[in-house]
Amino acid sequence: MSNDKSRDALSEAPIPQRNNSAEVVNSGSPLDIVLWVIALILLIGATMVGQYLPAYWAPANNVGVRVGVILACIVVALGLLYATHQGKGFVRVLKDARIELRRVTWPTKQETVTTSWHVLAVVVIASIVLWCFDYILGWLMKFIIG
């Protein structure tokens, strides 16, 4: 391969190069700060809806209304966070993670079961050894202290 770009091992397709996280965070605008503040206010408000809203708004005595207001606050806050540069970068990270999950070679059921039995055996053996140490040290302390 004469091309110096990174390539996917399976498909020989070039892997797109992305900005690193520091560049994404530093590329924000003053509007991002406003959106973050509004989103945080909405999320904090969503946590207080159940306690304070029924005192000021009579229909909020209904649990369904309170749940609806909480969900609406959360959805609007998440939408505002998505509108920021950091939010778009986070969504890009989630998409990249999903791509990586598809590239992973997952173990077969037989390999998983075998490995689980090995782990169980090691845990049982380690438990027995630790119990023996505890018993011997307890006996030794009783012998010394009397």
Structural overview:
- 75% of the residues lie in helices and 0% in strands.
- It is mostly helical and 146 residues long.
- It has a domain of 40 residues.
- Helix 2 runs antiparallel to helix 3.
- The protein starts with 20 loop residues before the first helix and ends with a helix.
- The relative contact order is 0.08.
Helices and strands in order:
Layout (H helix, E strand, L loop, with lengths): L20 H6 L3 H27 L6 H20 L2 H19 L5 H37 L1
Helix pairs in contact: 2-3
Proportion in β-strands:
under 5%
Give the count of helical stretches: 5
The termini sit apart by 77 Å
Question: What is the molecular shape?
Answer: extended
Helix/sheet category: mainly alpha
Q: Uncertain spans, ≥5 residues at pLDDT below 50?
A: none
Main β-sheet description: none
Radius of gyration: 28 Å
H and E order: HHHHH
Mean pLDDT: 87
Q: Give the total of beta strands.
A: 0
**Helix content bin:** over 70%
What's a concise summary of this model?
The chain is an all-alpha fold and 146 residues long. The protein has helices at residues 21-26, 30-56, 63-82, 85-103, 109-145. The chain has a domain at 107-146.
Summary tags:
146 residues; mainly alpha; 0% strand
